[in-house]
Amino acid sequence: MLVRFWGTRGSLPVAQRADAIQAKIAHALVAAGGRRFADEAEADAFARANLDFAAYGAYGGATSCVEIEGADGAFLVCDLGSGLREFGIDSVRRIAGGHPPVYHVFLSHLHWDHIMGFPFFGPAFNPAATIVIHSGHADAETALRRQQEEISFPVPFDWLRAKFQFVVHPPGQPFDVAGVTVTLVAQHHSHDSYGYRFEKGGRAVIYSTDSEHKVENMDAEAAFEGFFAEADLVICDTMYSLGDTVSLKQDWGHSSNIVAVDLCHAAGAKRLALFHHEPTYTDQDIQRMHAETVRYEELVRADRPQLEVICAYDGLEVAV
């Protein structure tokens, strides 16, 4: 399987401010130290070798949307955040190359940041496309239709031309989608949230966002240890630091990087992707949290195998 991240922010899409871009350019010029480059390729090579990711790249600003490539003749995508627009554009290109216009969507929950990209999803207007919405929520169709009512959006749901199906799944009962085995788990979040486990060819990917795990109540997390068990990649809600989750933002429905590491260690997972980044965090803030998480994993690893910790960003691809 190949995992593509189209949107990795939580709560609200964000864009880079002009002063943030200017600061990156100034940092790069200072690092260059007066060097001259023959062309952009040479400058790019220098930047990649000498600048950290927050200075030369960006974690992006689109809200949750993750594609899992590996199904038989279908697209698999988790959540319909604002990153869905770019995914839709790219999928149309692949359809022109012969990929079937079949989409299976797996909704974690129905909060706006996880469905707001749907009105801008180009394939929804394609009469040849089939879009299947999988969810643990019986009101998923209601939520998607409601955000396209006239008071909120100029294009009503009924103008869409794709063939739609809405399927509700009970937690804990595996089902097959285009050759991939999928299982849901219920998560702690307002109006409920669901995590997904995708399995194919002996490999497993977990998509678990908008789920609050409490460090003082890890005994109650045994179900998640089983759900994450031996996963090759766990995409996990790490919106806050541990300090945030036990003070100002407790019971807000999100989790911390520290608890994510502890869960993955207990589950024997191989790789953790930090996800659902706080919208007020700068690239430097996210990079700092990533570095702190890597260091924490080293400190508490003991005799366990190493858990690789990566930080999701818009455009990242991870082979599983």
Structural notes for this entry:
This protein is α/β, with parallel strands linked by helices and 320 residues long. The protein folds into two domains: 2-14 and 58-319, Ribonuclease Z/Hydroxyacylglutathione hydrolase-like (Metallo-beta-lactamase, Chain A, 4-Layer Sandwich); 18-56, no CATH class. The chain contains nine helices and 14 strands. The strands form two sheets. Strands 6-5-4-3-2-1-14 form a seven-stranded mixed sheet. Helix 8 packs parallel to helix 9 (283-300). The radius of gyration is 20 Å and the shape is globular. The chain starts with a strand and ends with a strand. The model is unreliable at 245-249 (pLDDT under 50).
Helices and strands, in order, run as: EHHHEEHEEHEEEEEHEHHEHEE
Number of helices: 9
Query: Can you identify the CATH class of the largest domain?
Result: Alpha Beta
Mean pLDDT: 92
Return Rg in Å. 20 Å
Strand composition percent: 15-25%
Q: What's the CATH superfamily of the largest domain, by name?
A: Ribonuclease Z/Hydroxyacylglutathione hydrolase-like
pLDDT under 50 segments (min length 5)? Answer: 245-249
* Main sheet characteristics: 7 strands, mixed
Tell how many strands the DSSP assignment holds.
Answer: 14
Indicate the CATH architecture of the largest domain: 4-Layer Sandwich
CATH fold type of the largest domain: Metallo-beta-lactamase, Chain A
Class per helix and strand makeup: alpha/beta
Beginning-to-end CA distance, first to last residue: 5 Å
Number of domains: 2
